[in-house]
Amino acid sequence: MASQSSLSDLRRAKFARRTPAALSELVGPEHGTVRLPLHLAWSGLTVFDLDQPRLRMSYYRIVLAEGQHADLVRCLNRGLLVSLWPTLRTLISRDVREVWEHSFDELTHSARLLREPHRPAPPPAG
Q: Could you give the CA distance from residue 42 to residue 81 in angstroms, rounded to a whole number?
């Protein structure tokens, strides 16, 4: 029987093979209604309104978990992924999160900005 760490390593390798070389490859829609093919959305909803925050988040969770490389670049949008990432990263598997954050510093930075408290600017000297 394979150890838990080796299974996780296998899952991470699978997700790493699917990721794009750069976030700029993600040219999916930003708005509107989209239909996912059955190989991605094989259970439950297949149509998502990206202008509805909960549906948009569900869509991104499904595509990140189930999508092959071609699905990722066609369905995901770079700007939306970066803006959703601080919350989205808490809703996806650890393996997916680690692969994407290891591959793209921009996502790690986006998540860190949300976690760090905002400090007010010091009062002007005078």
A: 22
